[in-house]
């Protein structure tokens, strides 16, 4: 697992209070990890803070799974 | 009621929960209160060097079975950050009260017949303070999506309603330091008038932060002369009193329609027999000098109870330990009771826990009910040398064993709002 993936996983565990094993790449924040719409807003903010990236609202809406988050962050870091 | 002209129904108390500077749990807190312990100490969780008041009544940390608060035992970590401390304290007190009442309905009609009315004087002040710091540092975009639902006063009721699935009235009182009594009185009326069969009612406050202490200091309301001797700072009616000591906590009652409680075999602690409210129309922070507002609230509570002053054996005073307010209330009580004043005991439990603002009325309602249950008037600590004499026994320093069937509790708030509630021994 990449460093980004590890860090994303840690943030998700912390913010949603879920077991680490449940945070698979395919896991959906809302359907699998018990998040509501406010939780996802907060998660995105936590990603922004932790990785120093900006995630615009329209991009944030597309981040539904753990993998979506990792991909977006890795892409922004590569282009930065 | 209204067009149908239905008669009001009787309302009883079937559950109680408390979080206070004397700890958690009604029995634990009451025992400490009656034995004359104080919950006032130095403020520990932020730096007070810029503040003239450096003491408060803080909820002690500790495990549940030691009477302390360890949030992890009560609220999932991921939910804790969605609520200001005042909501967390309400959550804990509500859990104790609801468990105590045994009323945890699973069926839809019962849930619809159960409501919540937990108020707060100020709401999420510390949350607002932290959020304002983000704005001031140019980080407005970092505001949490949980900022608003964490700070809103009515979210104490909202969170409790969601947790237990209570779908009846979801309401909240906000009347500064009269909040707790207003919540209990208004919730009792909702039951009396048929809007609900059961109401989880009370108040919660957690304003011990720079904004809260600094704000009340600016209004010259807090004690500043006893920073080195915290347990002596809250001294209602004493000559040396110099302001109130802020406390934090929550008090929650389960109120229930009498027949509903009897039908399910609930234990009944007391009946809510009277409730009276009034306005001073005088000043934003000072009570009317003649005490007429408090007088009318008490008078109206007695009228609604169908009782005379002589029927009341214990008064839990508002008695905040401010130079002006204490004697004004005393005069109003003397005037109301007249000759019967000689027979009544009146104490201020704020001497032990401080002033819990919006939670005060709810916590003091519990103390009043306990006074009836045990026939004990809890003491007014630090009442060494009263600023004036009175025929009314203010229970100085030590609790008194005396027959108490009826207790009245007063709460008065900024804005000139007054509320009195009367409890009577269980029918």
Automatic annotation (TrEMBL), chain A:
<keyword id="KW-0444">Lipid biosynthesis</keyword>
<dbReference type="InterPro" id="IPR036736">
    <property type="entry name" value="ACP-like_sf"/>
</dbReference>
<keyword id="KW-0963">Cytoplasm</keyword>
<protein>
    <recommendedName>
        <fullName>Acyl carrier protein</fullName>
    </recommendedName>
</protein>
<dbReference type="Pfam" id="PF00550">
    <property type="entry name" value="PP-binding"/>
</dbReference>
<dbReference type="InterPro" id="IPR006162">
    <property type="entry name" value="Ppantetheine_attach_site"/>
</dbReference>
<keyword id="KW-0276">Fatty acid metabolism</keyword>
<dbReference type="InterPro" id="IPR003231">
    <property type="entry name" value="ACP"/>
</dbReference>
<dbReference type="InterPro" id="IPR009081">
    <property type="entry name" value="PP-bd_ACP"/>
</dbReference>
<comment type="similarity">
    <text>Belongs to the acyl carrier protein (ACP) family.</text>
</comment>
<dbReference type="InterPro" id="IPR020806">
    <property type="entry name" value="PKS_PP-bd"/>
</dbReference>
<feature type="modified residue" description="O-(pantetheine 4'-phosphoryl)serine">
    <location>
        <position position="37"/>
    </location>
</feature>
<keyword id="KW-0597">Phosphoprotein</keyword>
<comment type="function">
    <text>Carrier of the growing fatty acid chain in fatty acid biosynthesis.</text>
</comment>
<comment type="pathway">
    <text>Glycolipid biosynthesis; KDO(2)-lipid A biosynthesis.</text>
</comment>
<comment type="pathway">
    <text>Lipid metabolism; fatty acid biosynthesis.</text>
</comment>
<keyword id="KW-0596">Phosphopantetheine</keyword>
<feature type="domain" description="Carrier">
    <location>
        <begin position="2"/>
        <end position="77"/>
    </location>
</feature>
<keyword id="KW-0443">Lipid metabolism</keyword>
<keyword id="KW-0275">Fatty acid biosynthesis</keyword>
């Amino acid at each position: 697992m990449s460093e980004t993936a590890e860090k994303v996983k840690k943030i998700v565990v912390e913010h949603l209070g879920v077991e680490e094993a449940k945070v698979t790449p395919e896991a959906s924040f809302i359907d699998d990890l018990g998040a509501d719409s406010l939780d996802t807003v907060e998660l995105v903010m936590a990603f922004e803070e932790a990785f120093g990236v900006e995630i615009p609202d329209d991009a944030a809406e597309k981040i539904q799974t753990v993998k979506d988050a990792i991909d977006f962050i890795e892409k922004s870091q590569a282009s930065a | 009621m209204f067009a149908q002209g239905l008669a009001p129904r009787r309302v009883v108390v079937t559950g109680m929960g408390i979080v206070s500077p004397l700890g958690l749990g009604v029995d634990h807190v009451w025992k400490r209160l009656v034995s004359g312990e104080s919950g006032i100490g130095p403020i520990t969780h932020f730096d007070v060097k810029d503040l003239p008041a450096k003491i408060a009544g803080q909820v002690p940390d500790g495990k549940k079975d030691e009477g302390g608060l360890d949030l992890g035992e009560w609220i999932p970590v991921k939910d804790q950050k969605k609520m200001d401390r005042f909501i967390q304290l309400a959550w804990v007190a509500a859990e104790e009260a609801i468990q105590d009442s045994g009323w945890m309905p699973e069926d839809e009609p019962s849930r619809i017949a159960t409501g919540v009315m937990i108020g707060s004087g100020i709401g999420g002040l510390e949350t607002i303070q932290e959020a304002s710091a983000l704005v001031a540092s140019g980080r407005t975009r970092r505001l949490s999506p949980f900022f608003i639902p964490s700070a809103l006063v009515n979210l104490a009721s909202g969170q409790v309603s969601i947790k237990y699935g209570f779908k009846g009235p979801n309401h909240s009182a906000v009347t500064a330091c009269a909040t707790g009594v207003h919540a209990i009185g208004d919730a009792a009326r909702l039951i009396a008038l048929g809007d609900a069969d059961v109401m989880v009612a009370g108040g919660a406050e957690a304003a011990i932060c720079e904004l809260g202490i600094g704000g009340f200091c600016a209004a010259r309301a807090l004690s500043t002369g006893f920073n080195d001797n915290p347990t002596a700072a809250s001294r209602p009616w004493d000559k040396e009193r110099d302001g109130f000591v802020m406390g934090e906590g929550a008090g929650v009652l389960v109120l229930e329609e009498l027949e509903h409680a009897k039908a399910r075999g609930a234990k009944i602690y007391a009946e809510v027999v009277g409730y009276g409210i009034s306005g001073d129309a005088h000043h934003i922070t000072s009570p009317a000098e003649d005490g007429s507002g408090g007088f009318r609230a008490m008078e109206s509570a007695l009228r609604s109870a169908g009782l005379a002053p002589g029927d009341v054996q214990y008064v839990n005073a508002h008695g905040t330990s401010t130079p002006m307010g204490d004697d004004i209330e005393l005069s109003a009580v003397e005037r109301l009771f007249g000759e019967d004043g000689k027979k009544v005991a009146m104490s201020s439990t704020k001497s032990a826990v401080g002033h819990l603002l919006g939670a005060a009325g709810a916590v003091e309602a519990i103390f009043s009910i306990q006074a009836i249950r045990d026939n004990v008037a809890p003491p007014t600590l630090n009442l060494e040398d009263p600023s004036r004499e009175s025929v009314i026994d203010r229970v100085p320093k030590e609790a008194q064993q005396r027959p108490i069937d009826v207790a009245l509790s007063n709460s008065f708030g900024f804005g000139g709002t007054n509320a009195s509630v009367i409890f009577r021994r269980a029918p």
